[in-house]
Specification:
Layout (H helix, E strand, L loop, with lengths): L17 H6 L5 H8 L6 H12 L25 E4 L8 H4 L7 H13 L19 E4 L13 H18 L5 E5 L1 H13 L16 E4 L8 E6 L4 H6 L4 H15 L7
Parallel strand pairs: 1-2, 1-3, 3-5
Antiparallel strand pairs: 4-5
């Protein structure tokens, strides 16, 4: 009988292989999120998120920062996903909920509410009553990066979390809105990991761009839409207006088969 070596121990949360090992073994989003929030695989991001948490802005001096990876937010049977970039240092990194507690989130959730996909137009903190209808909000990088700029290596290390999230959403997912060029570039290979076949060559990002990914043996057809990111740089200059984002979200909701009347 052939001898076998000892079973390999799971990687520690601070090892680069931690996301790939645990993301692939999760049977549901709750389990995925539980492993994700313990991740310490990117030293630069860990140092930054904790440094920010230890030195809060004056306006948040009385608050304890989350200062950990931020999981996706929304129902497990979402038909529409919204993909951003990464948590903001004093937004999601503070509150522990994606796009919550900063100006970008205010802009996004106000638009989702206008379309009828969110219970309220504001997102202050977990427990504030915000509920999303058929939508899950997530990002390709789950820790706040310095200057809002993750490195390609950090994006690659974090990729298994998003691939697993899309794999778990896959049976009901019908449309995705991608906020910004970084998310667009990061998501296309993730969709391949999750069972779809992204077009080649990869299409360029643009506001209002729309693609239809055909059904595969594993997945239903998927519609992919691009929008400028609701960063203050874009919203203050008028590059992205509320009406522009509402239009993209309305189109995505229709493609996903979601109601666009407020409950």
């Amino acid at each position: 009988m052939e001898e076998t070596g000892p079973a390999q121990s799971p990687p520690d949360s601070g090892e680069a292989g931690y996301p790939a090992y645990f993301a692939a073994r999760c049977g549901g989003l709750a389990e995925l999120d539980a492993h994700l929030v313990r991740c310490r695989a990117c030293p630069r991001l860990v140092e930054w998120r904790e440094q920010v948490g230890a030195h809060p802005r004056a306006a948040f001096r009385d608050q304890e920062y989350w200062a950990r990876p931020v999981p996706g937010f929304g129902p497990a049977d979402a038909a529409l996903a919204v993909v951003g970039l990464a948590p903001a240092a004093h937004g999601g990194n503070r509150t522990g909920r994606m796009f919550t507690g900063d100006a970008s989130g205010d802009f996004l959730f106000a638009a989702l509410h206008e379309v009828g996909l969110a219970s309220q137009p504001t997102a202050m903190h977990p427990g504030d009553g915000l509920e999303l209808y058929g939508v899950r909000v997530t990002a390709p990088v789950h820790c706040a990066p310095p200057a809002n700029k993750p490195t390609p290596a950090e994006r690659h290390t974090c990729r298994p979390w998003l691939a697993a999230e899309f794999g778990l959403l896959g049976p009901g997912l019908r449309a995705v809105v991608v906020l910004g060029a970084f998310g667009w570039q990061a998501l296309l290979p993730v969709l391949g990991d999750a069972g779809w076949e992204p077009p080649r060559p990869r299409p360029a990002f643009g506001h209002g761009v729309q693609l239809a990914l055909p059904a595969t043996e594993r997945r239903q057809p998927l519609h992919l839409l691009g929008s400028y990111h609701p960063s203050q740089r874009n919203t203050f200059t008028g590059r992205l207006t509320s009406g522009m984002l509402v239009e993209v979200l309305t189109r995505a909701a229709a493609l996903a088969g979601l109601r666009t009347e407020r409950p």
